[in-house]
Specification:
This protein is of the alpha+beta class. It is 36% helix and 10% strand. The protein contains 5 helices and 2 strands.
Length: 125
C-alpha cells in the first residue's frame, strides 16, 4: 500500500518550518507507522529545503537530469549535502536514451552502486 501526503501551499518560511522541532516529531511519528518514507524535495542548489531535509532523513537519493545537469552542478550539490552531513546513498540519472552515443559519455562520470542497506546496514528513507 502507498500513502501520500501533498505539500500543500508554499509557506512564507519553509526553511524555518522544515527545521522545526515539530517537523522532527512528525517524521518520528511517520517512522512508527510506515516501513519506508520518501520525501520529494526541491532542487538542492536554489533553495535550502533539501539540505535541511537531508539532515532529518537516513539517506538522500540525488536525481540528475541527463543531458541537462552540468557535471559541476552535481559536484556542487554533493558538496553542499556533505557540508550538512546528509547521507548521499545514490544518484539516479534520468532522461537518458541508452541507445544514443551520449549514453556512453555519461557512463564515464556516473557509476551504479548500492546504499548501506546492501552493505549490511538497514537504511530507512
Amino acid at each position: 500500500n502507498l500513502f501520500a501526503v501533498s505539500a500543500g501551499r508554499i509557506p512564507p518560511n519553509p526553511a524555518e518550518l522544515l527545521g522545526s522541532p515539530r517537523m522532527k516529531e512528525a517524521l518520528a511519528q511517520l517512522e512508527e507507522e510506515f516501513d519506508h518514507i520518501v520525501i520529494d524535495s526541491p532542487p538542492v542548489l536554489p533553495v535550502t529545503d533539501a539540505r535541511i531535509i537531508g539532515t532529518l532523513v537516513d539517506g538522500v537519493l540525488l536525481v540528475v537530469k541527463g543531458g541537462e545537469t552540468p557535471k559541476e552542478a552535481v559536484q556542487r550539490t554533493k558538496r553542499l549535502l556533505q557540508e550538512v552531513h546528509a547521507q548521499l546513498i545514490g544518484v539516479l540519472l534520468n532522461n537518458v536514451d541508452v541507445n544514443s552515443a551520449d549514453y556512453h559519455y555519461y557512463s564515464k562520470y556516473y557509476a551504479y552502486g548500492y546504499g548501506r542497506k546492501y552493505a549490511g546496514e538497514e537504511v530507512r528513507s
